[in-house]
Amino acid sequence: MLARLEAEESLKAVQVHALGSGLLGASEFRKSIAQLERAAYGRPRRPAQATPAVLQAMGIGMVVLPAATAAPADQEASDV
Fold first, then answer.
1. 47: left (phi > 0), else alpha (psi -120 to 50), else beta?
2. What are the extents of the domains in the chain?
3. Choice between 55 and 36, residue whose per-residue pLDDT is larger
4. Which of 10, 19, 51, 65 has most Cβ atoms within 10 angstroms of its Cβ?
């Protein structure tokens, strides 16, 4: 865990130097600033949504059912 924290801090230091040197484009600059502001002000980042492949890698089974088709409106009225 310590290695992960050190790596995260190193990446943030590189990001700070890139921001200060002007090497980033405008959109990358805005994204980096927004990310740093979220971290500074405590707004949580949204967790990434797990894909079926990620769930499978975690050992979680997943069954995808076919979508149910809706009956046509005239057929529903005649059933009542």
1. beta
2. 2-65
3. 55
4. 19
